[in-house]
Amino acid sequence: MNWLGLLVLLTVAGLVLGTRDNCGGTCGLQAVPIVYRSMANSYGNLDYGMTRIVGGTAAKPGAWPWIVSIQDFLESGTGNICGGSLISTQWVLTAAHCIDMVGLIGMLRVVIGATQLTRPGPGAQTRRVKRVVMHQSFNPDDLSYDIALMELDYPVQCSPSIQLACVPNATLTVSELQNCWVAGWGATTARGYDASDRLQQAKVQLIDLQLCNSSDWYAGKIQSYNLCAGYPQGNIDTCMGDSGGPLMCKDNAAEYWWVVGVASWGEGCARPKHPGVFISTQHFYDWIDYNMRAHRAAESAS
Question: Is 146 one of the annotated active-site residues of the chain?
């Protein structure tokens, strides 16, 4: 099915479980669908010391059109410090610790619609940050409630390379989703610190929370609002610079994707029995919705 056909399909479907402020009534729609068979075959031959996002591959333009790069003007290179997800034309969902480590929000910029950061291309857009909303219970010491919203200085224009993420409410059974991916511009080796210029992606598995919290895994550090994703043997994982970015799972019955998690923390990168730990967007759906609505209402009243 072509792009226009998918657009019509999703508009008719209504996406009643997705975010508000949808571009043309859609969310979670890829411009370039992943070729699953060729990607799956490639995983058997990975040299984990030389690959990306730690165990991933380069994403094609338009593969994840809601992912954004959060950048600090004071950082060298591309400036990328974290990822995020565009959930409305003016709001980005990310991790609270990404905001906490920056002194002034005036030093931040957000790049939307790019795949290669040094060559973002004509379809990319850049915004400054107008406002941040960090969860009121966020604790930087243990990264509890590690979720935040960023309001952009003015809305983005949607296109095939810029689309909105779908955020699930309580009616979606996240644990039943099978086709899940992470993406970001973070470190590409387990002990690396240099960010990737090109967006990297990797297929991951959702891991049962009870297993993830067991004594030889994370030993009680996982909270009810966390998700674990990766592999028991390690090798594939998010890493430094991928924080705040999305954990994305394809709907089991449709062509769109859900952002089910926000990359938060992990002990090392790609270690056995220490997968990536994410904040469940479903758990915080009401918090996200309330804060976006509250700030809209306040601006309308002023």
Answer: yes
Cα 201–Cα 205–Cα 211 angle in degrees, nearest 5: 140
Q: Is 289 tagged catalytic?
A: no
Rounded to two decimals, what is the model's pTM? 0.86
How far apart, in whole angstroms, are the C-alpha atoms of residue 286 and residue 33?
Answer: 30
Catalytic residue among 69, 72, 85, 97: 97
Q: Rounded distance, CA 138 to CA 279, Å? A: 12
Q: How far is CA 231 from CA 77, 175, 212, 274, in A?
A: 31, 15, 11, 8
Over 60: is that where the pLDDT of 292 sits? yes
**50-59, 68-77, 144-153, 238-247: which has the minimum mean pLDDT?**
50-59
At residue 208, φ and ψ (nearest 5 deg) are -50, 135
Burial string for 190-201 (b: 16+ CB within 10 Å, else e) reads bebeebbbbbbb
- What is the distance between the alpha carbons of residues 183 and 263, in angstroms, rounded to a whole number? 10
Q: One of 85, 196, 243, 280 is an active-site residue; which one?
A: 243
From the list 72, 88, 135, 146, the catalytic residue is 146
Q: Could you tell me if 180 and 249 are in contact, meaning their C-beta atoms sit under 8 angstroms apart?
A: yes
